[in-house]
Amino acid sequence: VKLNGGLGTTMGCTGPKSLIPLRNDLTFLDLTIQQMETLNNKYGCDVPLVLMNSFNTEVETQEILRKYQHVNVRILTFKQSMYPRINRESLLPISRTLLTADSGDPSGWYP
């Protein structure tokens, strides 16, 4: 889980810190996704990137994630005001789907 809730206001930005360009026009998010894709390709695994957004970063993050549709990384998001319920035995999330305005099972999420 990667925190993606902070705005870059202290650095003069207006959006999520993860979208601040670092070098060669790559953002923190670009570099993180590149690292995750390298890991998944090298080891033949499917480690997802899970972004915890705030109400301030949710909309802009969802818009920018469209550009990563063709990478070998499952990208999941949730708002920090909500968190998944965990199965006591397996320690895995109870819900297998994300809770969105259009779909998902709210019984697998708090609050």
What are the key terms here?
111 residues; alpha/beta; three-stranded parallel sheet
Question: How are the SSEs ordered, and which strands pair?
Answer:
Layout: E1 2-4, E2 21-23, E3 26-27, H1 28-43, E4 49-53, H2 58-65, E5 75-79, E6 83-84, E7 109-110
Parallel strand pairs: 1-4, 4-5
Antiparallel strand pairs: 2-3, 6-7
Q: Short summary of the structure?
A:
The chain is built from two helices and seven strands.
Question: What would you note in describing this structure?
Answer:
The protein is α/β, with parallel strands linked by helices and 111 residues long. The protein is 22% helix and 20% strand. The protein has helices at 28-43, 58-65; strands at 2-4, 21-23, 26-27, 49-53, 75-79, 83-84, 109-110. The strands form three sheets. It has a three-stranded parallel beta sheet, covered by helices on one side. The protein has a two-stranded antiparallel ribbon with strand order 2-3. A two-stranded antiparallel sheet has the order 6-7. Strand 4, helix 2 (58-65) and strand 5 (75-79) form a beta-alpha-beta unit.
Structural class: alpha/beta
Low-confidence blocks of residues: none
Intertermini distance: 18 Å
Count of separate DSSP helical elements = 2
Biggest β-sheet: strands ordered side by side in the sheet? 1-4-5
The largest pleated sheet is described as: 3 strands, parallel
Quaternary state reads single chain
Written as H for each helix and E for each strand, in order along the chain, the element string is EEEHEHEEE
| Relative strand content | 15-25%
What fraction, in percent, of the residue positions are helical?
10-25%
Which radius of gyration do the C-alpha atoms yield?
Answer: 15 Å
The dominant shape is: globular
Give the beta-strand count: 7
Chain-averaged pLDDT: 85
